[in-house]
Design brief:
399 residues; alpha+beta; Rossmann fold; 2 domains; nine-stranded mixed beta sheet; three-stranded antiparallel beta sheet; 18 strands; elongated
C-alpha cells in the first residue's frame, strides 16, 4: 500500500506528520526562502501566557511559543511513495491556525534527509533551552514501520528516501527513526513539547500509553510539570487518506471543539481524546494514537493551548497589562485579588465577550496612578463587581 502508513501499489495516500509544539511567541511577518522551501512567520513578540485552574489560581506560565511545521509532498521516488499535493495547503492551514494561537511558526516544505534533521536540530537549538517555552513539531508526509529486535520501529520519510523493499540499507541511512525523536525529547529543556504526526506508523512511544483517560483531567498543579506528548493519525497497518481527515479535525479542535472540560484551555490529552473520537466517527480507516514519553521525569504534565476565541478577546490579549495591577499588594488586598482572578476566569469560561470587554476596560481605568490607596480600590471594586457576577439560579421548590 502506497500511503502515509507504509508503501503500497496503486493507492496514493499520505504519511507521517511530526509536530513539536514549543512555547514562544514572536511578531507577525513572513520571510520566504524559495530555494529551501522554508517560510518563517513571526508572531506578536514573546507573550506571557498564564495558565489558570478552575479557581483562578495560576498554576503555570509560558514565556514563548514556537512551532515547526514540516510537509513532504513531492517525493523523488514517487513510484514507491507517491506525491501528496494536499500537504502544501494543509500545512499552510496549520501554520495560520498556530499563528492565531500566538505561535511563531516556521514551515518547511519537501525536506530531504539533511534538511529534515537540520531543521529540527536548529529549531531545538534556537528555542528548546528556555524551560518556560512550549514547542510543537508537526510532520506531514509518508511514514514507515518495520520490525526490529525490540519490536516495531517507526520512521519519518524525507522526500529523497528510497524504496525500503528494494534498498533497505539506503532507506535506513536517510529516514528519520522515532528513536532519534525520543533522543531529541530528552535533550530539550523546554517544559512542554507536543509532536503531531499526520501519518500511520508504529513505535514504542505509543505502546507505553495507548489508552485515554475516561474523563479529561482538569487544569491543576500537575499540568505545568514537564511532558513530551505524541499524537499520530493512525496505526502502522492503516492508511491515511490523501485528503487528511486528521488535519481538518485538528483545526476544528484548536478552534474550540477540543475544549472538553469547557475551561477555556485545550490540553494535549483533551486534543488526543478529541482526535481519537472524531476521526473514528468519520470512518476513514484511521485510529489516532496518543502517548507520552516513557520517562518518569517527562510524563506528568500536559501541553496547553488557549482557545482561538479567547486569543481574540480583548481581556486575553491585554491580560499582561492587568496582571501587575491585580498583583500590586500596595493597592489590592490579597482577598480582592483572588476574587478578581476568579471572576476573570468565570468570564472567560462563559465566553460572554461583552463582559470581557467591560471587565478589562474597568480594570485598566483603575491603575496605581489613579488610586493612591488600597481602600480606594476596595471601594471601587465593591461598587462595581456585581456587573460581572452572574446572579444565582432561581430554584423553584417542588410542590
Amino acid at each position: 500500500m502506497k500511503g502515509r502508513a507504509q508503501i503500497a501499489s496503486g493507492i496514493q495516500t499520505r504519511s507521517i506528520w511530526l509536530n513539536v509544539l514549543i512555547t514562544s511567541v514572536l511578531a507577525l511577518g513572513v520571510c520566504v526562502w524559495a530555494q529551501s522551501g522554508a517560510e518563517e512567520s513571526t508572531g506578536r513578540g514573546v507573550e506571557i501566557v498564564p495558565i489558570l485552574d478552575a479557581e483562578g489560581k495560576q498554576v503555570g506560565m509560558y514565556e514563548g511559543s514556537f512551532a515547526l511545521v514540516l510537509g513532504a509532498s513531492d517525493y523523488t521516488d514517487n513510484q514507491a511513495w507517491g506525491d501528496l499535493p494536499s500537504v502544501i495547503n494543509e500545512t499552510d492551514q496549520i501554520r495560520e491556525a498556530l499563528i492565531e494561537q500566538g505561535f511563531s511558526v516556521r514551515r518547511v516544505l519537501n525536506p530531504d534527509e539533511d534538511t529534515l534533521k537540520d531543521e529540527v536540530e536548529n529549531f531545538i537549538d534556537d528555542h528548546g533551552f528556555n524551560k518556560n517555552n512550549r514547542l510543537l513539531i508537526f510532520f506531514s508526509g509518508h511514514g514507515y514501520s518495520r520490525t526490529v529486535r525490540s519490536g516495531q520501529q517507526g520512521y519519518l520519510v524525507p522526500v529523497d528516501a528510497p524504496d525500503p523493499r528494494r534498498n533497505e540499507r539506503g532507506f535506513l541511512r536517510k529516514a528519520l527513526p522515532m528513536t532519534r525523536v525520543i533522543s531529541w525529547c530528552k535533550e530539550i529543556e523546554a517544559k512542554h513539547v507536543l509532536f503531531l504526526f499526520d501519518s500511520c506508523f508504529s513505535g514504542s512511544v505509543f505502546e507505553a500509553r495507548s489508552t485515554f483517560p475516561e474523563v479529561p483531567p482538569q487544569i491543576n498543579d500537575y499540568t505545568s510539570r514537564p511532558v513530551r506528548q505524541f499524537i499520530s493519525a493512525g496505526k502502522s497497518n492503516e492508511l491515511v487518506p490523501a485528503q487528511s481527515a486528521f488535519v481538518k479535525v485538528f483545526l476544528r479542535g484548536l478552534n474550540g471543539e477540543a475544549d472538553l472540560t469547557k475551561d477555556g484551555y485545550i490540553t494535549g490529552t483533551e486534543l488526543g481524546m478529541y482526535l481519537n473520537e472524531k476521526v473514528l466517527y468519520y470512518k476513514t480507516g484511521q485510529t489516532p494514537q496518543f502517548g507520552k514519553i516513557r520517562d518518569p521525569s517527562l510524563d506528568e504534565g500536559d501541553f496547553v493551548f488557549r482557545l482561538t476565541k479567547l486569543n481574540k478577546a480583548p481581556l486575553k490579549e491585554r491580560f499582561p497589562k492587568i496582571f501587575p495591577i491585580i498583583g500590586n499588594s500596595q493597592l489590592i488586598a490579597p482577598t480582592i485579588a483572588t476574587e478578581i482572578i476568579g471572576i476573570y476566569q468565570a468570564v472567560l469560561i462563559s465566553q460572554d465577550w461583552e463582559s470581557v470587554e467591560d471587565l478589562i476596560e474597568a480594570l485598566e481605568s483603575v491603575t496605581p496612578g489613579d488610586l493612591k490607596t488600597g481602600q480606594e480600590f476596595a471601594t471601587f471594586w465593591a461598587n462595581n463587581k456585581s456587573r460581572w457576577i452572574a446572579p444565582p439560579p432561581v430554584v423553584t421548590p417542588k410542590p
